Amino acid sequence: MSTPPVLPPDPSPPVAAWLTTQPVGARPELIAEAAREAVIVGLGVSTREAHEVFAFVTDTTWLLVERGFTTIAVLDNQRVADLYDRYVSGEDIDLDRALAQAWGPWQVVEMRDALVRLRELNRTRAGARVRIVGVASSRVLSSDYDRVVDLLAGIDAGTAVRVEALLDVIRVAHGSGEHVLRARGTHPGTPFVEMARTARAHTARLAPSGERDAALELLDAVVDFHANAIGVGHDMAREEHLAADRLLDHHRRTGERIVLWEGSAHIAAHPGPMLGSHLRTALDDRYLAVHITFGQGHITRATIPAPRADSIDARLAGAHGERTIDLRTPPPATVAGDLGRSWPTRLISGLYDPADDDEHYFDLPSLTGSFDALVYIPTITPIRPLADE
């Protein structure tokens, strides 16, 4: 009797075959169903620059609102978020002016459309209105820079011109971040906090007056904003903890259930310094962490290639088609072990360079320890910047 040939081992991990057995489709209703007992749902995105990803976030949010969630939390300046909230509540707020002061990723048609839809929803809604809150710590707006110049113009025109020249350079950090400008080669060289301090020094030389003191108060906040920027004095762990505390305090005070729009690295629930970890510790399974990833496609400034071969994104791509997977549903034992191990997943930030795509991956210590649900979109197209209209 002949000896059977020895076959090489299957190079694909068990999860690869299991993914092909999962129902095809981007299904917001599955996330809404998984969130039955949750008080906070984190919708984590691998990129904020894709139309399809944004659409899944909003489609899921509308379903969650139908099922009792009444607060949407976004990473943005708290004063800007307050303008969003007043707008969706029906107040006479200039939405375009509010979005002009927003964090860069929110200055898009998709965000404006979402806010318009929420305003209409609140107008016709019989129950509690949907609110918007901001989780970023900053309370400095780009309009504060204009206010400083206006105050100084009434005191000393020359000082106003000098301060305005400095502020016009550094205010762009509210859109992209100083670290992003450095990476893209568009940073002027002088640290923005130094330019903010110079603007304050010019102002401090003026004779005391109510206008000067008001300008100095605003400039103190501007200096603090730039002194705590990423790559300067930013304390990520502290900011993440404070953001989690804001969300938890909002829930405890109001009883409202919250949908959080954030990046996947912040949403991930595995132990560590990030926002999602604090929420999991405080809420256990009442926090639902969702990872929305993709295969390839285009964003405004780059073409994104197929994902790295060892990533969970590549395994999803190999299953062909959209997927929405509740990771808490027990899979076969062999698959459970594979899902529980470390997996890389791609995250697209403002620093993304397609020439170095392999470097833009985040290692999850455990897929099922990090997320409760997984969403995969094969191909993305760019979001639509408001500036292009």
Automatic annotation (TrEMBL):
CDD domains: Ere-like. InterPro entries: Emycin_Estase, Hydrolase/PRTase-associated. This is Erythromycin esterase. Pfam families: Erythro_esteras.
